[in-house]
From TrEMBL:
Compartment(s): Membrane
Pfam families, sorted: HAMP (PF00672), HATPase_c (PF02518), HisKA (PF00512), Response_reg (PF00072)
Entry keyword annotation includes Transmembrane helix: yes
Highest taxon above the source species: Bacteria
Official protein name in the record: histidine kinase
PANTHER family: HISTIDINE KINASE (PTHR43047:SF9), TWO-COMPONENT HISTIDINE PROTEIN KINASE (PTHR43047)
């Protein structure tokens, strides 16, 4: 494992070096190895030579000392033996001389060296024999130790000089190798620089041809590839520029078409809602005091067709506003039951007309969301559920979930959605083609296939996601989750109020005579005292006979010749302020849905209804604004 780790380290280190460093390393390593081997070999040879010379010197001195010590040993002349030992010890390189008898007794001993130096020497022991009897018994022995200190010092000096020579040679070799490496790698470095410059200039990158070797062939190949790449890059830039201009033109055309479509849909919604609103008023007025069953049935069909048309226009308009990004999210905290009540008011009559039950369970939870978008989501889901429920009914309920969340469910007992269609029902203009299973007579209730698409996109805007669970012939449930918040203790909640508007004095301002006629007929059938006007001047004339301000002023937002309903309300405020009358309630009704044009109304905090307004919604709004102005006074 250690060898593998060291090998990996060497490989990583080698990969991190540059080409010049590698070439310098390759040039330096043989010189280093050769020099080290030479120094090692010469040093060992010199050391061996010094030891041989020391050995020979010691043997010669020992032989000489043994020869001159033979007679004094035979005669036991200790003084002579001491003199011989001293004289021998004074010879060069002799560190210790010792003469012993045959039984090992030291007869003479001489050493001048320090104890540390005596340890570093070469010792030779020579037997002393009688020269007259060479083969006789030994007379004693002579021990001579030769010091190697001078030899070692000489060896160290030689090694030091060798190392200096080695360092100088390595330095010279390194300089030469580095220069050679630079010379060899220079063409490659220029190629690397040229490669980095590819695609950054207005001309092809060219490198100088330095030689005729493989490097020269590489340089020629690079120049050819650079020229071809430059031509290709230039052609590609030209094609990209053309494609970019074409794409920009198409994008501009698409944006223009999208804006034109949005403007058309908004204008169509505003203009077509006017007659729809008149139809709604007249159909509702026709039903007042009508006892003929056949006529009531026809009136109900007319009202259902009007509601279906309004639903189709609303789907198209919502799609347009979502595509153009003109829908702004305004998050607020409110009781969920308020939105449930609005949904109940919008659809309970439709459910009763088709013998269906619409059950909306009350709840005390508060949520944080965009109230308008949430209402639109629930209205679309409930409308869709009623449309495809032949019998039974629809249930809307809320349930608390862990993590301060509330899940809102819309259940129905309708025809259901098959599994193969569930992944696409949220696509635009997609409808499940199962009309044979749809409720009979649902023609005017069918949509364009935009309701669920709008629901999903609105849910994304408020940070939620609509989930679908459905079984054919068993019904469907659409669910989404909202964040729960703590209830506000001092919030003004809507309370049930009586819907008796008889005796209320109402001024209606609208530039469409048909709408004026219809709303005048409807309000009078409710017992209201009504006067009408088409602009601000007529409004002042219409209320001249009223000494005090009307109870309520209903005005269209856009009147003739660019006049605004806000301007009419301002004229009436100024008129009745001079008279000293109490403030009057006010209500604006419009077919306009563009947020930029509705911003002044939202800023002024004036109640606003969107055409066509159902009679029930109009009646509840009349009582709500009337009650609010009376509480304020």
């Amino acid at each position: 494992m250690t060898d593998m780790g060291s090998g990996n380290f060497a490989v990583r280190l080698w990969r991190r070096t540059s080409l010049m460093q590698r070439l310098g390393f390759v040039a330096l390593v043989p010189t280093l190895v050769t020099a080290v081997l030479l120094v090692t070999t010469l040093t060992r040879h010199q050391l061996a030579t010094l030891r041989v010379m020391a050995q020979d010197t010691a043997n010669a001195i020992a032989i000489q000392a043994a020869a001159v010590s033979a007679e004094p040993l035979r005669q036991s002349q200790r003084r002579e033996l001491a003199r011989i030992a001293q004289a021998t010890g004074e010879l060069p390189h002799v560190a210790w001389v010792q003469i012993r008898s045959v039984d090992g007794e030291i007869l003479a001993d001489h050493h001048d060296a320090q104890p540390d130096d005596t340890a570093r020497g070469l010792t030779v022991i020579r037997e002393v024999t009688d020269p007259r009897r060479p083969l006789g018994p030994s007379l004693g022995s002579v021990m001579v130790r030769v010091s190697l200190a001078d030899a070692i010092a000489a060896q160290r000096s030689s090694l030091h000089n060798a190392l200096i020579t080695l360092a100088i040679s390595l330095l010279v070799a390194g300089i030469i190798g580095w220069q050679v490496a630079r010379w060899l790698s220079a063409p490659l470095r220029r190629l690397v620089t040229a490669v980095q410059q590819l695609g950054h200039g207005d001309a092809p990158v060219v490198v100088e041809i330095t030689d005729r070797t493989e490097i020269g062939q590489l340089q020629r190949g690079f120049n050819a590839a650079s020229a071809a790449l430059f031509d290709m890059h230039r052609d590609m830039e030209r094609e990209i520029d053309q494609a970019t201009r074409a794409l920009a033109d198409k994008n501009a055309a698409l944006e223009a078409a999208s804006i034109a479509k949005a403007r058309f849909l908004a204008a169509a919604s505003h203009d077509l809602r006017q007659p729809l609103y008149a139809l709604t008023l007249f159909s509702s007025a026709l039903a007042v005091d009508e006892d003929d069953v056949v006529r009531l049935d026809r009136i109900a069909h007319i009202q259902e067709c009007v509601q279906a048309l309004d639903h189709l226009f609303s789907e198209l308009l919502d799609l347009s506003r979502l595509e153009t990004g003109t829908m702004d999210v305004e998050m607020s905290e409110f009781p969920l039951d308020q939105v449930f009540d609005e949904v109940s008011r919008n659809f309970r009559m439709i459910a009763e007309q088709h013998d269906l039950r619409l059950v909306i369970r009350t709840t005390d939870v508060w949520v944080r969301s965009d109230r308008t978008m949430l209402g639109r989501i629930l209205n679309n889901l409930v409308s869709n559920a009623l449309r495809y429920t032949p019998e039974g009914g629809v249930l809307v309920a809320a349930r608390r979930r862990p993590g301060k969340q509330v899940r809102v469910d819309v259940w129905d007992t309708g025809i259901g959605i098959a599994a193969e269609h569930q992944a696409r029902v949220f696509d635009e203009f997609y409808r499940v083609e199962n009309h044979c299973e749809a409720p009979p007579g649902d023609g005017p209730r069918r949509g364009l296939g935009l309701g669920l698409s709008t629901v999903q996109r609105l849910a994304e805007l408020i940070g939620s996601d609509v989930q679908l669970h459905s079984r054919p012939h068993r019904g469907s449930v659409f669910s989404f989750v909202l964040p729960e918040v703590a209830p506000q203790p001092h919030a003004d909640l809507l309370v049930d109020m009586p819907l008796d508007v008889s005796g209320m004095r109402v001024l209606v301002v609208d530039d469409e005579p048909a709408i004026l006629s219809g709303i005048r007929y409807l309000l009078r059938s409710w017992g209201c005292e009504v006067v009408t006007a088409e602009d601000g001047a007529q409004a002042l004339e219409a209320v001249e006979n009223w000494r005090t301000a009307p109870d309520l002023v209903i005005s269209d937002l856009h009147l003739r010749e660019g006049e605004s309903g806000l301007e009419v309300l301002a004229l009436l405020d100024a008129y009745y302020k001079r008279e000293g009358s109490r403030p009057f309630a006010r209500l604006l009704i419009t077919g306009e849905t563009r947020r930029d044009r509705l911003q002044p109304i939202l800023t002024a905090n004036i109640p606003l209804l969107y055409k066509p307004v159902s009679p029930a919604q109009l009646r509840e709004s009349l009582m709500a604004v009337w009650a609010s102005i009376r509480e304020g006074t």
